[in-house]
Known about the structure:
Elements: H1 3-24, H2 30-33, H3 38-57, H4 60-71, H5 92-97, H6 100-103, H7 109-122, H8 134-137, H9 146-155, H10 160-167, H11 184-196, H12 207-222, H13 235-246, H14 250-253, H15 266-274, H16 278-291, H17 295-299, H18 313-323, H19 326-340, H20 352-356, E1 365-368, E2 386-389, H21 391-398, H22 406-422
Antiparallel strand pairs: 1-2
Helix pairs in contact: 1-3, 4-7, 4-9, 4-10, 11-12, 11-13, 11-15, 11-16
Amino acid sequence: MPQASRFQKWRNVRTRGLKLEQRTTRLIPRPFLKSSNRDHSVITEMAKIRDIGETRKRSDDIILVGYFLSRCTEFSDGEVPRPPASLGVDSWNGAYDLFFDVLSDGRSQQQFRHTLRNTRDIFDSLFDNGRKGWSDGQKRGAELSERDRAVHDHWIRRSDEELLNKVREFFGRPGRRRNPDWTRDELIIALDYHLNNRNYDPRPESEEIGELTQRIAKVGETLGLTGHEVLLRTPDAIAMKLRNFSSYDPQYTENGRKGLPNGNGLEAKLWEEFSGRTDEVARVATGILKLIGTSDAEAATFGDIEFEAPEGRIMTRVHLSRERNLTLVKKKKEAALRKHGCLACEVCGFDFLQTYGERGREFIECHHILPISLLGEQGKTNLSDLALVCSNCHRMIHAQRPWWSMDDARAALISTNRSRSQG
């Protein structure tokens, strides 16, 4: 080999060794780094750290629970891996939270979720559970640590029921109330922030995230998710939620960044509904915050909301409150009787009095026709903002997202009637 080639090879090896040393300085004791055979010793020590470092941070109980979550993953439909059905939860975060009280060992909720998820993923290569496993799908079974493999060897011949009974020992306190799932209202506030800061990575300690945390806390309090001045979503949790949105944002990911995938699923729906309508998101987010503390926002309880609008629960509450206002409804009916002499549905023409006799006199419902995203900008509700509709048409208007306008409901009725007549 020519002299220049040998020198180049030596320099490449030496450079790699120095870079490795720089990356591991915090892990290796300084006297160790001063040994005469430094590069070789660093590599040897790093091999030891890779072999036991991760599992040393995890208790044997966390390893066992992670093994259970991987082995008993629900994959019956062959499409979406879900938490074990025996846990009775709908999301993976819900599954992790069952063990938080007993196994968190000082970790925050988000840190614990990550630890347990990563532990679960380690075992994915051993089971046909629909997930790709550790490290973007590269099977890791051959790299299980001794502690990981010991758990597998001990439980592989025992039933899932026995394994479940064992991990139940690590369930949290029976009376503990875990944090509720994120609501549309909270996520809309977060999405509005992301769309205005989409090229920046959120920092939990920043002033901006602190202010966002307070805004989202007000939403949670208004919805009854938490008490006054109780922080339901921490700055760390909010920063992670913003990274969930980043994972769907092509403007963020175009340079190779990934964000944080695998949120609770609602982020993806909101991104699909609102990401192309930045002004609309800003209007809705502003409206939600403006309506907080108003009597309309406080008027309805969760049981009253059968159909939640895309804009969230607070605006849905205001919408329902205004169309159920007894004074406004009475005035709207009186105006219709003076003008038309009857109370007929403005969509289908149904008249309760004609159909049911005296029992149906003055019986009809009111629907607030103003686009719900504008509720935060509107003060007083006018009679022209209300329409009289029968119960069936009212339910159809609210049945799915997005809600129908009055014209949408009429068009659907006309189309259906036309199809029947032609059939």
